[in-house]
Amino acid sequence: MGLDSPDTRWSLFNTMTDKRLEEALRHLHPPPGTKLWHGGATVSGALRGLSPQVAAWKPYSDRHSIWELALHVAYWDYAVQRRLTDGAKGGFPRSPSNWPNLPEERTPEAWEKDRHLVKVWHDLLVEAVEQFDKDRLDDRAGVDGRTTYADLITGIVLHDTYHAGQIQLMKRLARSHGV
Question: What whole-number distance in Å separates Cα of residue 78 and Cα of residue 85?
Answer without folding.
Answer: 10
